[in-house]
Every structure is written in structure tokens, then in C-alpha cells.
Design a protein that fits this description.
Oligomer: single chain
Protein name: DUF1016 domain-containing protein
Largest sheet: 7 strands, mixed
GO molecular function: nucleic acid binding
Organism: Pseudomonas frederiksbergensis
Helix content: 40-55%
InterPro entries: PD-DEXK-like_domain, tRNA_endonuc-like_dom_sf, YhcG_C, YhcG_N
Strand content: 15-25%
Distance between the termini: 81 Å
Length: 340
């Protein structure tokens, strides 16, 4: 008798499909419960907002409501005075934002609290709401993205990509970043490329989360043979949305223009030897410890390959400095708009 069909065997492969159906149903049920809970909080927040706006209630009445619910619904959680005011804030924050309001219902209450309490601008709220839904961030990962100032970096430091990549994939600016935060590696100063490579492999899950949800790992030190010579590509991924291979070359020093030539060579090899007929041409990423933006611009200006140059950071950025840059960015845009 096959071991997989022994009664009571926890690894019986015959029932995998049934188990998958059960797991899927559980996930859908949890999502439905969350959606209903968020809708309840929305309605309660709207009710309180309306009562306060019409001066029918004062803040003390909200406190009385919390006490009344605690007494009459002893098993009910989440309806404290502070949370009732958060429900009001939740409703007032999003009720006029037609594009964002449906999305917040797809996030947990904890996710929503983090976003509307830590965001300073409407566009920042929308940015994190959309990404949290798209990337399916956990609460911990969402908090990390705020710490890494992802919004500020995305606005003030857009990805440096070649014209070819921009034309082939207009969405590339939203997918790739100018800098990737690798603080989770705990790398010391003066680390070697092997340390960086080994660290990324050891923390691949975190690295994939930093890259984005549609990135799938293909291989490390991926072998390529051209002519009679053997070559090794640092990291190879596949992006489901772009439908193409993404090659990443690691450099622990400052970007040099000659690095781009080697990356272009790898992309050509991937397109000729690895790319499948239904896939788009491969994209290359040079991930360096630092870069000079002017040098990058010159290097990419005449590049015929879909490539980009980014840097990695092993320490969290100075968020106050980035917020100051963001303020300058918005002020400059307003000034330019007034001139026009």
C-alpha cells in the first residue's frame, strides 16, 4: 500500500484539492468578516460625525455611548471612546475620496489606523492605501514602509531608468525604485559583495517584499554561457506584471559607467538564450551602494537596453530630511504652477 494513501496519514496527497478549497473558503470568510467590520466602523463614524456636526451631540455624549455599549454589550470589543472618535476620523478622512473609499474596505482596521494616523497629506494616504492593497502588506511591513519613508522617496527620488525601458514599460516608474532599503540585512560598513549576496539569499523573503509582490525569484549566480565562456549573473527574477526576466547585478561601491556594459551583455544573453517566445525582453537593474545622479543620467542617456540604476541603503533614511525635501518639492511645483 502506498504510504500516501494510508488512513490517517497527514500527508495523503489525494485530498490536497479538498484542503485547498477549505483554505480558500476560510480566507474568503475572513475577508468578508473584515469587510463587514470596516463597513460597520464606517457607518458608526458617519453617524457620530453627523451628530457632532449638527450640534446634536457633544464629545461627552460619545463617551456616554462608549459606556452604554460596554454595559449593554459586555462581549463587544473595539467600541471604546477613543476608537469611536477614530471611526469618526476614518469616515471624515475618506468619505469625499471616491477612488480611495472602496479600497480602505479591503484593509484591516489596524492597517487603516496606521495609514490615516501617520499620513500627512491626502496623496500620501492614497499612496499607502493603494500599495497596501496591491502588495498585501502585513501590518508589520506597512509600518516598515512608513519608517523607510517610501512615499517621500518615491516623490522626490523617482527611479532612474533608460529611455528604452520607459518606452517599453511606462509602468516601470511605479514598479522600480531609485533606492532599496536593505536595513534588515544588518550589514556592517565596508561589507563585501559576497556579504551582500549571502545576506540577500538568507533574507530572500524580506528582499522580495522590498522589490514588490510581482517579483518571483528564479536563481542566484545564474549561469550563462556565451561562445565558449561561462558567466554568472548575480540574481535573476521574473516580474509577472511586466512578463519578463529581471536581472540584478550587485555592486558594493559607487556606480561606474562601465558597469552598464556588462549588464547589457547579460541582458542580450538572457534574451537570446533564456527568454521564452511569449515573454518581453529582459530588464536589468544595477544595484549599487551609491551613485551620482548626473553620471547615471549620462550613462543611461544613450543606452539601448531596458535598464535602470538604483542604490541600496543598509540604514533607515533620515525621515525628517526627506520630509523637508518633499515640502520643497511641493512648494516648487506650486510656484511653477502659479507662473504658468
Amino acid at each position: 500500500m502506498n504510504a500516501s494513501s494510508v488512513p490517517g496519514n497527514a500527508h495523503d496527497d489525494r485530498f490536497n484539492e479538498v484542503l485547498a478549497l477549505i483554505q480558500n473558503a476560510k480566507q474568503q470568510a475572513m475577508q468578508a468578516v473584515n469587510t463587514q467590520l470596516i463597513e460597520l466602523y464606517w457607518q458608526v463614524g458617519a453617524y457620530i460625525s453627523r451628530k457632532l456636526e449638527q450640534a446634536e451631540w457633544g464629545d461627552s455624549v460619545v463617551s456616554q455611548l462608549a459606556e452604554h455599549l460596554a454595559q449593554t454589550q459586555p462581549g463587544l470589543r473595539g467600541f471604546t471612546r477613543s476608537n469611536l472618535f477614530r471611526m469618526r476620523q476614518f469616515y471624515e478622512t475618506y468619505h469625499a475620496e471616491e477612488k480611495v473609499a472602496p479600497l480602505v474596505r479591503q484593509l484591516s482596521w489596524s492597517h487603516n489606523l496606521i495609514i490615516f494616523s501617520q499620513s500627512k497629506r491626502p496623496e500620501e494616504r492614497e499612496f499607502y492605501v493603494r500599495l497596501a492593497v496591491q502588495e498585501k502588506w502585513s501590518k508589520r511591513e506597512l509600518e516598515r514602509q512608513f519608517k523607510t519613508a517610501l512615499f517621500e522617496r518615491s516623490v522626490t527620488q523617482p527611479a532612474k531608468i533608460s529611455a528604452v525601458l520607459r518606452q517599453a514599460h511606462p509602468a516601470a516608474l511605479e514598479i522600480f525604485r531609485d533606492a532599496y532599503m536593505l536595513e534588515f540585512l544588518d550589514l556592517p560598513g565596508g561589507h563585501a559583495e559576497t556579504d551582500l549576496h549571502k545576506g540577500l539569499m538568507a533574507r530572500l523573503k524580506e528582499f522580495l517584499s522590498e522589490l514588490g509582490r510581482d517579483f518571483c525569484f528564479v536563481g542566484s549566480e545564474y549561469p550563462l554561457q556565451v561562445g565558449g565562456c561561462d558567466f554568472s549573473l548575480d540574481l535573476l527574477f521574473f516580474h509577472r506584471g511586466l512578463n519578463c526576466l529581471v536581472a540584478i547585478e550587485l555592486k558594493v561601491g559607487r556606480f561606474k559607467p562601465e558597469y552598464l556594459g556588462k549588464l547589457n551583455f547579460y541582458l542580450e544573453a538572457l534574451d537570446r538564450k533564456e527568454r521564452k517566445p511569449h515573454e518581453n525582453p529582459a530588464i536589468g537593474v544595477l544595484l549599487c551602494a551609491s551613485k551620482d545622479d548626473e553620471v547615471v543620467e549620462y550613462a543611461l542617456n544613450r543606452s539601448l537596453s531596458p535598464a535602470l540604476i538604483a542604490e541600496y541603503q543598509v540604514q533607515l533614511p533620515d525621515k525628517q530630511l526627506l520630509q523637508a525635501k518633499l515640502h520643497e518639492f511641493y512648494a516648487l511645483n506650486i510656484a511653477q504652477g502659479e507662473e504658468e
